[in-house]
Design a protein that fits this description.
Elements: E1 2-3, H1 10-27, E2 39-46, E3 58-65, E4 77-85, H2 91-96, E5 101-102, E6 106-110, H3 113-122
Antiparallel strand pairs: 1-5, 2-3, 3-4, 4-6
């Protein structure tokens, strides 16, 4: 569950998570993750990933990288992906959940455990 989550602030979340990843890398906490420094996060809504009409929209998070020593015109590549979903949430839970919370109970992630820990801690 996320407190005060807003789908209109996805660009802001992207900037904050990108800054957090850079800070972790600079502190040396992310050194085992990989050696590339140019990381950025992007958040997207996935409106088609809902079990029922009452379920919140799913959120896709992509961690992108530009390999070092590449041309400025080179596109970023996706190196990690995660999805927050809240499909088939029981009505009992939705009725007692305050409006300030968004219920995205399932986090599907493709990436290393160390990098997932950084993303998970940020959330």
């Amino acid at each position: 569950m996320m407190y005060n989550f807003s789908y209109t602030r996805l660009k802001e979340y992207s900037k904050h998570l990108s800054a957090n990843i850079a800070a972790e890398k600079q502190k040396g906490l992310a050194s085992e993750v990989d050696s590339e420094l140019n990381r950025k996060a992007k958040f997207y809504c996935l409106p088609g990933l809902k079990g029922t009409d009452r379920d919140p929209l799913a959120v896709l998070i992509q961690i992108l990288s530009k390999p070092p020593l590449t041309k400025a015109s080179t596109e970023d590549r996706i190196v990690r992906t995660g999805w927050f979903c809240g499909t088939y949430i029981e009505d009992d839970l939705l009725e007692v959940l305050p409006e300030t919370f968004t219920c995205l109970l399932l986090f599907l992630y493709n990436g290393t455990k160390a990098f997932m820990a950084i993303v998970g801690t940020w959330f």
